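G.,

No rush on this.
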Amino acid sequence: MNRLSGILVIFISVLNFLPVNAQYKAPPDRLFTHQDTLRGSITPERAWWDLTYYHLDIAINPADSSINGTNTVTYRVLQPARIMQIDLQEPLKITMAVQNSNELKFKREGNVYWIELVEKQEQGKINSVVLTYGGKPKVSLRPPWSGGITWKKDKNGLPFVASSCQGDGASLWWPCKDHMYDEPDSMLISVNVPANLMDVSNGRLRSIIKQKNKTMTYNWFVANPINNYGVNINIADYAHFSEIFNGEKGPLDCNYYVLKEDLEKAKLQFKQAPMMLAAFEHWFGPYPFYEDGYKLVEVPYLGMEHQSSVTYGNGFQNGYRGVDLSNSGWGLKFDFIIIHESAHEWYANSITYEDVADMWIHESFGNYAESLYVEYYYDKEAGSEYVLGTRSNIQNDKPIIGIYNVNHEGSGDMYYKGGNMLHMIRQMLNDDDKWRNILRGMNKDFYHKVVKGSQIENYLSEKTGIDLKPVFDQYLRDIRVPIFEYFVKGNVLSFRWNNCVPGFTMPVKIYVSGKEMMVKPTAYMSYLNLDVENAVIKVDPNYYVGTLNITGK
């Protein structure tokens, strides 16, 4: 029995409907300020310097929820300038800025510090600024959806602390160039904590230094470019275990850090980590950070895709907190956080959006990766059932692409609708080997790169050989689900797309009395002579479209 037979195509009654070719205009959902522009755009005070290296050197005091320390910002001068933009959010404060022993003047404007450089900034030179800062950072009220630091206690009353800051920005807890377009080539993260605790951050543990004041400093080195929100601190009385994954690029160190009371549960549940690596190396190519290793780290919130330091708080159970988000049954075959957040090592941490308006690059592919994992371990039909099952979560409330240059992401539909869009493009291509090669090629061609959404759109159009611009305009920039309108008279099938953007066209697979056929509707009526009279027409349910038989109109 075909498992897809029980999955219904979206019907007209649930669609946002406008007349054919009407132009959808999204209503503004907020007013933007000058601070939004400073945060979300590549300002002149950012553009003149290229970030090359950070050394974040901080002390964490769980007793009073404070952070104090320095960040050394190393950069290459692209063009001469004297004012540098550094971002740090209230209530934290920069107290000193120094370059080559010269204390620098600075001014604060909201969440931005304007650093006034004294020395001439010569093009091509490598310079550094040391920023001293401190205070009590914003507490996350709903991690990881609201950014900040989470200060909790474990069952033994010991501190259990973690950062999470996607969207809200890394400048919530450390001073940096808080825009995704520029990443350091490498980074050293030095975190001082009470001696009875451990810090786990990104990359490899280079050293542990015992201090005279009964604290320990953990030095983690990241050998690869890293985005701001991918940097993290995780502090607890951790237990540690490890294994080697023999991957496409050789041995990969996999390290796991969990609360001591959860060690046995983690040893069982984290067996899914090498399974994940095998599946995603098959689909996407080698894990992107062999030099830095792979880690899963238990935290006091659900989880996050921090680079080479994926955080985990899903309760050592399958599903999303034990729930199947697809309602297909397949979502309980794997631990959602291990699979989804680790998929972001490829799509988020290696291939990174330049502007949060294009966050779909991270989340659509992250969501779609879940179904590819299911397909890898079960079969193609199971993977299709999973991704189709997630459609019940689609809201069609606003466009998936947000507003550029003001740090404004689009609809949460970037997950489920975006994943279904990618699944649908695979159907149009109708060549599974070529589709896998495109995904692997994308991760090779954009390896460790920051990209615009348009680059990914153009890449998929080029590599599939299909003009996908109308598809992206419909599914990323509009809220309507296109409707396949048709009627049959005798042996003639009449069909078109309705409820769509101007110029919309998309190939779609249909079944004519059970016989598979590919057609390419436009917004204008097309006609096709069939081999049979009064055929029954069905659209392949793998396409996220509506259907409407307009017989009699």
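When you get to it, here's the other one too:
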Amino acid sequence: MSSPSSPATPTFVIGKARTRLLGLTWDECIQAFFGGNALVAVIVLALITVFLFREGAQFFTQNRDNIRIYREAGLEYVDYMRQQQEDHTALTRYLFDVRLRTLKHLTEVEKISLAEANAKLAPFDDFAGRYGDAIDPIRGLVSDLTDVATAIKTKYTVGEDAKIEREQLLAAGKTKEAAAVVIQPMDFKAELAPIVGTLPAYKEAAATVTQNLDTVLATIPALPVPSLQPRMDRFKQLTHDYMATFPATLHSMEVWDYTLPVPMWKSFSGFILGRQWLTASFWQDWYGIVPLFAGSLLISMIALFIAVPLGVGAAIYVNQIAKVSEQRLIKPTIEFISAIPSVVLGFFGIAVLGQALRAISQFECLSWIPGFPFSERLNALTAGCLLALIAVPTIFTLAEDAINNVPRAFKEASFALGATRMQTILRIIVPASLSGIVSAVLLGLGRVIGETMVVLLCAGNRIQIPDFSAGLGVVTQPVHTMTGIIAQEMGEVPQGSIHYRALFMVGIVLFFVALLINFFAQKIVRKYRISIG
């Protein structure tokens, strides 16, 4: 007679009611398996979060030091004058735009030759030349001080590098080599004396520039195209507004103090609200996420504008109208799009779509469309069209599932009351599945905002806030995105540098944007879920 099995021995007995493995029922084994998968997902999410914050956490401290050096080396002081020069340059570009519009009207509307048009614009060109030269006193001052400020910053950087080298040698036990490292002391007050001492020269230069501009504006010519004259009146007002900023600039220079501390909030706001992403600059690096976030948002909105009608419309048609043979063709075709590598779509955008859209925009009959014609084949519109193609399968699949989950009794009741098929679809089926459709749209948004290769190849990669004053024409402007900047620059930055950590901060923002989108999608589903049965 055999002895009974030890309680510690694993058993796997198939009976009528249940199966046991290591003391667990079969149902408990399945539950443990899927529960373990959920646990792994939570662990992976936690690890990603920890990794992102570990690599990006020191960014704000480094960025504060970056801004502090910018101040102590005198770059901030010089930039007060540089801003005056850049504002004048912007006004000069405004003049150039007026000339281009006038020339286009003369040659295309009035049908005169280019030589005759340029002859008519000769007084305007003389005025524009004198206007551009009016800033020369400040331009010369900025040029001289730029060399002084960059020399101070370079000297400081060399000294900091020498300190790091000495610390590394001491840590390695090389005392003799460490003692040989020369560290030049920095006396910022003495170094900044030549820069701060130019304040009287700036006062004189500002007065000269103001006088020059007043003299030039007194001789402003009338345009040969009367319809464009309001632009010149606007230019005159803008110039007066520009001259009114000189006293405020002078006051800022008078009260400027290089010893003022840089608070941590300024480092934070410089990243969150910063309008410049400027790296590897001889002057000063800036890490502002606004142009990248605006580019990502613009492209995502273009993609959703195209993908939502296509995806939701296809889902309604396939689920409610299409025949079985059409369903067998349409569903696999749409879902196959998601299998196309994004890099292939990017190459398609470069070689075909971008070129085609630019060619279409040149048609005279389409000139009424905002932004047409345009010359940049790689822009937000090209990237948005391709991202729409990527988002359609996600929106279609989830929206079709939401429509399919509407109780059949709703449809039958509608038909019983005499409603047509279209009335039933628009007034019963779609409203009943609206929560699932909204969730599908949000998940589609999460899909496109995290796309990398398409935007990197097709968006134009211009790090600049889109000019939303252009109206709908903004869609034809080149932009850069959060995902694109990470992919483009991560492989080129030294590990641990401020640039490296700034890219991780962009990743953190992108990570939380995706989590937020998914959170709202799930919340909508839970709140408006249709109870079946």
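The chain is about 70% helix and 0% strand. Residues 339 and 447 are 14 Å apart (CA to CA).

Enjoy the weekend,
O.
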